[in-house]
Predict the structure.
Amino acid sequence: MNDSFARRLGIEHPLIQAPMAGSTTPALVSAVSNAGGLGSVGAGYLEPQAILDQAQAIGALTDRPYAIGLFVLPDEFDADMAAVAKAREQLDALMAREGLDVRTSLPMRWAPRASDQFAALCEARPAAASFAFGVISPTQLRALHERDIYVIGTATTVAEALAWADGGADAVCVQGAEAGGHRSTFLHDAEDAMIGLFALLPLTVRALAAHDRNIPVIAAGGIMDGRGMLATEVLGAAGSQLGTAFLTCPECSAAEAWKRDLPQVQVHQVTTIRGFSGRAARGLRNRFVEAMPEAAQGLPYPVLNALTAPLRRAAAAAGRGDLLSEWCGQAASMVRPQPAAELVTRLMHEYRLAKRELAH
Ligand SMILES: Cc1cc2nc3c(=O)[nH]c(=O)nc-3n(C[C@H](O)[C@H](O)[C@H](O)COP(=O)(O)O)c2cc1C
């Protein structure tokens, strides 16, 4: 494998456990890093102090490289409060109909302040930082490079990959349409940026070479085993980023109902959903998605995300997988529930086996 990215970071395997906001724990991140991959904290929803606390907890569990993943967002958001009130009314009515004893409330802020999160990231000083939803500023890039932090930008189109390359990223992670969780799309409408990894990956590798910007490309979306990792290598990837595959690890904090549902997911039930957060994200079409109130669907990210957060927490606590955001990639039913370190070892064993078989 073009091992430029793994070599530069000093990791044994070209394998990243995706930053999954709301679902990663220090135990998961450190287990992956200790097993030779790159564990990543999904820090997008974390307040700055929580980012520092998680970094400290990980530091106590591993001295291997790990990453912190953030969203590129403005510090403040405006909301149409009349639309918010209407959405709350309809969401509360839905919860009452479904027998869940929880109601929406107005949060203090719609999302943590992005610039404070970024300052915490700099202070935590992980080996790598990865970003979704936009490109960081030249000042931010400089701040990261001054601290020797390796910068990975997420792209869902070739244009976005080039924007990250122009912005000075050390590597770009291409997120195919198969991928679970939020679409990182920032230059296009989400519907126009649903590009399968088999098209996006070689197109990106070719475009970066044509622009003389041969930064490593990391592949994400629907990769669930070592064969998938090898397939991305054949198409020019320097590494693979897996999210859904790690959701059923015991160290992952995804709700138990969600973990239970994943092995049974039929691929036609995996769809693009805006109704939980206000941003396009891939997950399971469940009861909430089917019954989603119209007023809620009109609210943007992160306003809707903040409103539904307590509802999703209550659904998780009540074991109601049908009412929480069960993010997953298209190949979700290929999950293998097992401890993260074992999964990393298994993935790499499969990868080597598949490579040997191909050579014969
Ligand atoms: C539950 C979940 C949460 C995610 N959260 C983030 C995130 O916070 N930041 C990010 O860059 N990507 C996030 N992603 C997307 C992953 O980085 C990656 O693109 C995706 O998991 C790859 O597809 P797969 O799930 O089929 O492996 C998330 C994915 C999942 C499944």
